[in-house]
């Protein structure tokens, strides 16, 4: 199934989508592609915000801001997300989680990729409207969407069915 359909389905049936991803087997390359794709799209989501800041504020020019965001999103953020997945898995293990380090990465990285459409929308709203009610509404949707998918992903990835992966 195309990844765009899986992303759309993740908002309605997140457990089923993550269970399908788990059933596809242990593929570290796929999980790495999820986190790198998500980070690339998160970098793109920052463009309107950075362009607005470069135009309205004194400080570094747009190319310097884009270079810093590129370094942050494509080099540093993936490492942070790997550490975050490990910490969440360790906490789940302490309370009886049955998943593996791989399933924890899969759950978090898929959640990041699945919420990139909302994050792209947030970047557009932040870039075009700036701070205000619109940005707060879309930002709230991003947070709610992220945690909806991630909590359901944790339930699947740390549950009994994830123990064999």
UniProtKB/TrEMBL annotation:
<feature type="transmembrane region" description="Helical">
    <location>
        <begin position="31"/>
        <end position="50"/>
    </location>
</feature>
<keyword id="KW-0812">Transmembrane</keyword>
<keyword id="KW-0472">Membrane</keyword>
<protein>
    <recommendedName>
        <fullName>Yip1 domain protein</fullName>
    </recommendedName>
</protein>
<feature type="transmembrane region" description="Helical">
    <location>
        <begin position="70"/>
        <end position="95"/>
    </location>
</feature>
<keyword id="KW-1133">Transmembrane helix</keyword>
<feature type="transmembrane region" description="Helical">
    <location>
        <begin position="136"/>
        <end position="156"/>
    </location>
</feature>
<feature type="transmembrane region" description="Helical">
    <location>
        <begin position="107"/>
        <end position="130"/>
    </location>
</feature>
């Amino acid at each position: 199934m195309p990844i765009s359909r899986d992303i759309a389905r993740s908002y309605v049936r997140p457990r089923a989508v993550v269970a399908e991803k788990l059933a596809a087997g242990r593929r570290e390359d796929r999980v790495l592609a999820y986190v790198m794709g998500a980070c690339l799209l998160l970098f793109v989501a920052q463009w309107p915000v950075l362009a607005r800041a470069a135009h309205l504020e004194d400080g570094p020019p747009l190319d310097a801001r884009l270079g810093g965001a590129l370094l942050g999103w494509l080099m540093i953020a993936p490492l942070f997300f790997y550490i975050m997945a490990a910490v969440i898995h360790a906490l789940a293990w302490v309370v009886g989680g049955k998943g593996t380090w791989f399933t924890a990465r899969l759950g978090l990285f898929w959640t990041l990729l699945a919420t990139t459409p909302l994050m792209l929308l947030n970047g557009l709203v932040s870039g075009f409207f700036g701070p205000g009610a619109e940005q707060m509404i879309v930002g709230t949707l991003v947070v709610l969407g992220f945690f909806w998918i991630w909590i359901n992903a944790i339930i699947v990835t740390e549950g009994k069915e994830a123990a064999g992966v």
